[in-house]
Amino acid sequence: MPAEPDVVIVGGGLAGLAAARRLHRAGVSWRLLEDDGRLGGRVATDTIDGYLIDRGFQVLNTAYPRLGTLLDLATLDLGWFTPGVLVRRGEAVARLVNPLREPAGAAGTALADVGSLRDRLRFAALATGCATLPPGRLLDAPETTAEGALRRAGLSDAIIEELLRPFLSGVLVDRALETSSHVLAMVLRSFARGRVGVPAQGMGALPRAIAAPLPADLVELRTPVAEVGPHRVRTQPGELRCRAVLVAVDPPTAGTLLPALGRVRMHAYTTYYHATDTPPLDEPILLVDGDRRELVANTVVLSQAAPTYAPAGRHLVATSVVGPSAPPEPVVRAELARLYGRPTADWDHLTTVDVPAALPAAPPPQGRLRKPVALGGGLFVAGDHRDSPSIQGALASGWRAAGAVLAELRAQG
Hints:
Layout: E1 7-10, H1 14-26, E2 30-33, E3 45-48, E4 51-54, E5 60-61, H2 67-70, E6 78-80, E7 84-89, E8 92-97, H3 106-111, H4 117-132, H5 135-140, H6 146-152, H7 157-172, H8 181-193, E9 196-199, H9 205-211, E10 219-220, E11 225-229, E12 232-235, E13 238-241, E14 244-247, H10 251-257, E15 266-276, E16 286-289, E17 298-301, H11 302-305, E18 315-322, H12 329-340, E19 348-360, E20 374-376, E21 379-381, H13 391-412
Parallel strand pairs: 1-2, 1-14, 2-10, 7-16, 14-21
Antiparallel strand pairs: 3-4, 5-9, 6-9, 7-8, 11-12, 12-13, 15-18, 15-19, 17-18, 20-21
Helix pairs in contact: 1-13, 4-8, 6-8
Organism: Micromonospora harpali
Domain Amine oxidase: 14-406
Protein name: FAD-dependent oxidoreductase
C-alpha cells in the first residue's frame, strides 16, 4: 500500500465505494478511510434475535442504471415485492397494481375506490411518460415541486391525499412533497421500468457486494478524519498527503469537512420492526393509509418478500414514519391494528430505528440533478446530495466524482 496514494477517499458508503471501484479499475493508487467499523454508510443491516433489521426500510430497484456497472444483481438473491400498493380507507382496503407487471390485477385497479377512474388514467399517463421519454427530456421540463407536478397532471385531491402523498412520502421522505418534480420524474421512471426487492441477506449485502472486488488492505475502518485540505487528509495518526481528496461521507459531515458546501438539510425517517407468528398480509405488498391521518407512511411484511428476514415460522413487519418527531411504539402498534384490520397486541416489538438524516432534501431548483463534484484545489465531493436523493444518486455521484478525479490526474500528467 503506497504511503502517499494518488487519491484518498473519505467515507465508505455507497458513493465512496462506487468511487473506489472506478479508481481501482483505472489503475490509480487510492486509499479509503471509513469512520465506522463497517462499510455501507446509511445502508446497513443488523441481526436481532435472528431477524434481519435494515437501517430503516429500504429497497433496491433494478432500474437504477449504476447498479449493473458495479455488481451482478443475481448474486444478491433478491426477494420481490408485489408491484403495487394497498390503500386502507375506512373499513375497506383497495388494491392497486402496475397492470404491465401484474395484468391479472388490472381490472381491480381500474375499479378501485381511490380517486376516480380519470385520476388513475391520468396518473398512468404521467408514469408512462416518465418511463418512456429520454431522461434529458424529463430533466429539461419546467420544474416545480412534486405536489405541483401531480396537480399539473390534473390529479384530484382525493388521489393525491389518499394514495400518492402517503406512498411518495415514504419514497422521498417528504410528507409535504416539496421535493423537485425532476426527482419525482426519476422516481416514477424507476418504478415503472424496474422491479423492487430486497437482498436475501438484507440491504447490507449491497455495499458488501460492491466492495467485494476491492483489495481489503486499501480500506481502513474505524479511521475518523478530522480535517481535509488541498492534497491532504488529517487523521489521529497524522497527515496523509495525496494528489486528490474525495469526500464521500454523509451530507452533514461533508458540510463540516467542506464548509464551502454549506448546510445540507436532511429529512428524518423512523422504522418500527415487529415480529409475529401470523403475517397480517399474505403477500409482499406495501400498505398505506388513505384516511389522511398522516402518521404511518407505509407498512409491509418484509418476510413475505424475503423469508430470510425472519426465523422459520415467524414474520417481520416493517412500519415507517416520516418526520423528526416519531410517535411512541404503542401509538404505532394501535395504527397497525387499524391498518391491517386485525389485533397486534401479541406482536413483539424488536426495535425502532431512527434515521435523523435519512435523505437530503431536494426542493426545486434541482435542474438536471447534477451538482458540481470538483471543488478545486484537489478537493472533490460525492454523495446523494450531489445527484438525486437515492441509492442511485449515491452510486452515480461516486462514479461521476471519480471520473472528475481521473480527468484532473491526467491533466496533471
